[in-house]
C-alpha cells in the first residue's frame, strides 16, 4: 500500500497526533463509524504500515540514560553472522545496514561510559568486525516522525 486515500491519511494523521487513541476515539474524531476505523486499521496493519510499538518506550526510564551510535566496519561475507551476534547484545536497540564507508550503524543504550566501553569491546570481538567508531548521542534534534510526510504526500486517485 504505497498510496492512501483521504480516509487512510486522516486516520494516520490522527494516529500520529494521538498514538494511543482508541478505535472509538478515532471514529469520533474523524466522524467515521467504529467499524470503518477498525477495518481501515486492520487493512493498514495487514499492509505492514505500523512499526513496532516498542519504539515508544524511553530507554532512560529503564535505567539506560546514555545512547550512542557505533559505526561498524564488517568483512562483507560475514555481514549476516555479525547481524546475528549483534542481535544477541541486549543493549543494541537498532541496527541498519548501510551503503558507503560504514557497513552497519548500531544504536546502543547504556547506563554509563564504562558500559559503553564494554559494549563496544563486545562488538569488536564479533568475528567479521574489523573496527568500530563510536559517537555518543548528545541529544535528539528531530524525533522520529511521519506527520510531515502524511501532510506532503499526494492523495490517491
UniProtKB/TrEMBL annotation:
Keywords, ordered alphabetically: DNA-binding, Transcription, Transcription regulation
Stretches assigned to the HTH asnC-type domain: 4-65
CDD domains recorded: HTH_ARSR
Keyword Transcription regulation among record annotations: yes
Family annotation (SMART domains): HTH_ASNC (SM00344)
GO terms, molecular function: sequence-specific DNA binding
Biological processes annotated in GO: response to amino acid
GO CC, any one term: cytosol
Superkingdom: Bacteria
Annotated Pfam families: AsnC_trans_reg, HTH_AsnC-type
Keyword Transcription regulation attributed: yes
PROSITE patterns in alphabetical order: HTH_ASNC_2
Protein name: Lrp/AsnC family transcriptional regulator
Lineage of the species this protein comes from: Bacteria, Bacillati, Actinomycetota, Actinomycetes, Micrococcales
Amino acid at each position: 500500500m504505497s498510496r492512501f486515500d483521504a480516509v487512510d491519511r486522516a486516520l494516520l494523521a490522527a494516529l500520529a497526533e494521538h498514538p494511543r487513541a482508541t478505535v472509538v476515539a478515532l471514529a469520533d474524531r474523524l466522524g467515521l463509524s467504529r467499524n470503518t476505523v477498525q477495518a481501515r486499521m486492520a487493512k493498514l496493519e495487514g499492509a505492514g504500515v505500523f512499526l513496532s510499538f516498542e519504539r515508544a518506550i524511553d530507554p532512560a526510564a529503564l535505567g539506560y540514560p546514555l545512547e550512542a551510535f557505533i559505526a561498524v566496519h564488517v568483512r562483507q561475507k560475514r555481514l549476516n553472522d555479525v547481524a546475528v551476534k549483534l542481535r544477541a547484545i541486549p543493549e543494541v536497540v537498532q541496527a541498519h545496514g548501510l551503503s558507503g564507508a560504514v557497513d552497519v550503524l548500531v544504536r546502543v543504550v547504556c547506563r554509563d561510559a564504562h558500559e559503553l566501553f564494554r559494549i563496544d569491546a563486545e562488538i569488536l570481538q564479533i568475528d567479521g568486525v574489523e573496527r568500530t567508531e563510536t559517537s555518543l548521542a548528545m541529544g535528539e534534534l528531530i524525533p522520529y516522525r511521519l506527520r510531515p510526510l502524511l501532510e506532503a504526500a499526494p492523495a490517491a486517485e
